[in-house]
Amino acid sequence: MDFKALLKPFDCECGMHHSCAIGHIYIGKGALSALPETVREFDHILLVADENTNAVCGEQVRDLLGRKLTRSLILHRDGVVIPNEEAIAEVEKELDGIDLIVGVGSGVIQDLCKYVSFYHKLPYGIVCTAPSMDGYASVGAAMITDNMKITYSCHVPHIIIGDVDVLKTAPMDMIRAGYGDILGKFSCLNDWKLSAVVRGEYFCQKVYDMIFDMLQRTKDLGEKLQQRDEDAITTLMEAIIGVGIAMAYVGSSRPASGSEHHLSHYFEITGILNDEPYFNHGTDVVYSTVFTQMLREELLQLKVPAAKGGHDRAEWEEKIRTVYTAAAQGVIDLQDKMGWYEQDRLSVYREKWQEIRQTLAEVPSCEELKAYIASVGLDYSEYEKLYSAEKLENARWYAKDLKDRYSVLWLYYDLMK
Predict the structure, then answer these.
(1) Full-prediction pTM beyond 0.70?
(2) Residues 304 and 384 in one domain
(3) What is the pLDDT of residues 371-404, one digit of tens each?
(4) How many folded domains does the chain comprise?
(5) Within this chain, do residues 118 and 266 fall inside the same structural domain, yes or no?
(6) Residue 97: exposed, middle, or buried by beta-carbon count in 10 A (0-12, 13-18, 19+)?
(7) DSSP code of 256?
(8) 375: how many CB neighbours lie within 10 A of its CB?
């Protein structure tokens, strides 16, 4: 993939000036050897990793940074590192005199480095240890603050290095997660187009086509990814970075995060709050892509849209407090700020129903999606085994409330609740 071409700014037909300020991208075999060149302009580097990612290539990165490495921070946790206030504080303690942060890891480490570096006006780089999610090149940092999953708009990394010799050794569940995050674009791209139809939200056909092309290149690679085929790993990683660049073009995660991500965030937040198990991000995303497609197929059975009933504020608030416990007030405050429950969208649905139906019909069927995920070794029935029927039912109605973004979850709520 020609990343240099993708990083060139341009004026788009959508009316936006698209740009992505990443300085260096190296994806391929032996890419780690490029690290010294990319940090030439810096003198005092902080390395951030966790115990697992440090074991993968932390020592190699330290050797390559040499005398420029001022400090190393290895985050220790009994289990998963969470990108919350505690982790933020640990990184911030190490910033004195630092002019570059280099993360060694994947989702959590890069979100943490991105967030801290942005708020302290520092550049950062990421040495990727797994092709596990699409946020490496984006401006978004998905953090958990005040018990809420919030994607903060920050900045892109100065350096991205993805060495295929490292990436292909990642745990298979992380490779599957990266594939799942890309396959989830069937859902989020559809949600973006749906919102443009229903709400007149900004939409860029060029960005849409760019991400869809990444999806088309990746969707049939499931079996080869299970074999850790180097070409397949490279294609997946290029798609992951390409999608991130597309998000940077529009300054938000909108083109790559919709209802399937809202469900994933719901399972993560409620899992953390209630000390319950949940899948890693990309796996939850791809299973939730199947789940949201079930909703689309149910909506496509409607000949004429009709409201099922009004919004009962007291009943809704009681349910939100039950579902989200300590995070409930943040959810309620967000929805009060948006005011979407007070809006009547039925007239829009009736006026544009044929266009809405045409949009919903563009996503592959549930059975097609299940075949894709089976090819990479995932089984949708595991989703239904891990999450109770009650939890899935609550997700159907209340996962949307975590975010300020229109998706098929709102359409389903408006017409089916």
Answers:
(1) yes
(2) yes
(3) 999 999 999 999 999 999 999 999 999 999 999 9
(4) 2
(5) no
(6) exposed
(7) G
(8) 17
